[in-house]
Amino acid sequence: MRTVIGVDLGGTNVRAEAIGPSGERLGNRLEMDSMAQAGVDACVDAICRAIAEAREGIDAEAVGLAVPGHIQDPIVRWAPNFGRWDGGRFHHWQDVPLGSRVQAEIGLRVVMGNDANLAALGEYRFGVGKNSANGLVLLTLGTGIGCGVVLAPRCVSGGLARAAVLIGGNGGGAELGHMVIVKDGDPHPSAVGGTLEAYCNKDAIVRRGAARLSADCPEALAEITEGRPAELTPRHLAQLADAGNPAAAAALAETGEYLGVGIANIINIFAPEIVALGGQIAKTGSQILEPARRSAERYSIPTLFADTKIVIAEQIDDAGILGAAALAFEAQT
Predict the structure, then answer these.
(1) What is the pLDDT of residue 191?
(2) What is the pLDDT of residues 304-318, one digit of tens each?
(3) Which fold has domain 131-312?
(4) N or C: which end of the chain has fewer CB within 10 A?
């Protein structure tokens, strides 16, 4: 069976696994510290060690590498969470030939893409897209909001040879988490104010929830966090909302309303068959999903909304590895 190694590089860990052409897991999954802030050499070494262990006893033909940031294979143009500390200052990655470095070390072809783009490809090929959807957009909800857009051949006038990931002219496109949904809105450290990410990322959800709980039911906040309110998480809010707490439910519903505005923009621009929500925050389920659907319906063109399914992703934990593997298979054909 044809086999590639899918690698998902993150700011904390790097994960690698041998994958077959239909998404089969063919070996052990390796996970180790990515050394993301210890310099390029240390990070390359961690990636190569993970690949070496994942391909042990496996005749792999290529490696796909999912990397956060602006990726223009084989170059990491910009990755703000990767770099090194020097004299108390953090120097982030810029124009790092990561793909070439890893390829030279392991002796296999390496192809590389943005992690959110490849997560969308993984969800399209091996998740809710079933490798047949008439376009899929994946929003990954977490510390930030990543996005990937997969266009089926019939989504493009004149057609495509196969489903394709939209990456823009310089590989850095489809950053829909940075679309502005509120003019002059809430600030965000990595972008202008008012973005989808500024309103729907983990920190925004926690701030919204903490404010409502502190005002309306501080005892519930103290209980769910065991007396440590600063450790409140979206999962805590979902637990409270599921138990009937109105303040937590309102905080998540407000998040869903903002998210729905962004989804409506996505529907109006791409008219995808599927908008999938991934990332750990998507595990809050209906508390965010249902308000997001109602909001998206309010702001979408009706006929476009009617043809779009807004769902929770199937491959929340594995889409990056699977998408990286899909990219590697495509590069060999």
Answers:
(1) 60
(2) 999 999 999 999 889
(3) Nucleotidyltransferase; domain 5 (3.30.420)
(4) C
